[in-house]
């Protein structure tokens, strides 16, 4: 069995966001195939992991320029004889270069976006500096794991990355087939929130203090819901997620306008299965939207903006993904109404083959690792 070291420079156990869940699940399934050790910060719940976690990284931002890590990691790698090291994100590019020089270990960068593009989209002035740093980091890597084909194509065409050194590792799902308990799930959610049997459940989920998701909430409240209220449809919009800003007062102002704020829920899969429509009016942020991957796996039909659908394979998603031009909220609502009225179609079998975690790790093991 191969020995792999991974560097995750933030807490992810337990997970509350899509990004944290991506890392947690990636390591969970990778740890079934390799002898995995993860270097991370101290505030992870190691009891939730099935692999070894070493809390070697500092809690503050200084962990990203902690020069003492060079000697510590080199000593660990030489002692344990790891076959490869996976760096989450390109932020430790300077350290990856030093460790590669000292140990010769196979160096793999796991990108979650083209990072400079994400920071540019949310208005960070320093994105040109990150662009240069990120490009050099990827060019020096022995292997790169991209979440989306679009990100890989960009890196190959613009940054001269060798395609044969890359692989697509999308956000995955545990489920590998159409869920048989959709009706039971809908009944449970209707009962929990006082929703009528004749009402359509429209769902949004995400980490709500993340700007692209918060912007999406505002679009739902100011653009989508008012238009739906003028239509002949019985519905409730359920918003799930942690981190809603205090000034929105748990959306109490909208309680009489068909909006239900559920907060963070432990059983989000039940909500996905209960939903008639999943909303993805996201306009920025980059990368694949993890909540959308899960929603389709649990057989919700997603109505998304073009920006929000970036990274998704629309051929594999079939009728479960409906894409509308950015900022065209009238067309967005028209698609919600159409989807809500039509009989639900099952998620294509090919979707589970593409996005099932077991298959994703199998592809990784036969290529990069």
CATH architecture of the largest domain: 3-Layer(aba) Sandwich
Q: Which superfamily, in CATH terms, is the homologous superfamily of the largest domain?
A: Glycogen Phosphorylase B
Give the percentage of residues in beta strands: 15-25%
Identify the strand order in the major beta sheet: 3-2-1-4-5-6-7
Q: Got a strand count?
A: 13
Radius of gyration: 21 Å
What's the domain count? 2
Order of helices and strands: EHEEHEHEHHEHEHEHEEHEHEHEHHH
| Fold-level CATH name of the largest domain | Rossmann fold
SS-derived structural category = alpha/beta
Compute the separation of the termini in Å. Answer: 11 Å
User: So what's the overall shape?
Assistant: elongated
Number of continuous helical runs = 14
Task: Characterise the protein shown here.
By secondary structure, the chain is an alpha/beta fold. The protein folds into two domains: 182 residues, Glycogen Phosphorylase B (Rossmann fold, 3-Layer(aba) Sandwich); 166 residues, Rossmann fold, CATH 3.40.50. It has 14 helices and 13 strands. A seven-stranded parallel β-sheet has the order 3-2-1-4-5-6-7. Strands 10-9-8-11-12-13 form a six-stranded parallel β-sheet, sandwiched between helices. Helix 3 links the parallel strand 4 and strand 5. Helix 2 packs across helix 3. The chain is elongated and about 65 Å long.
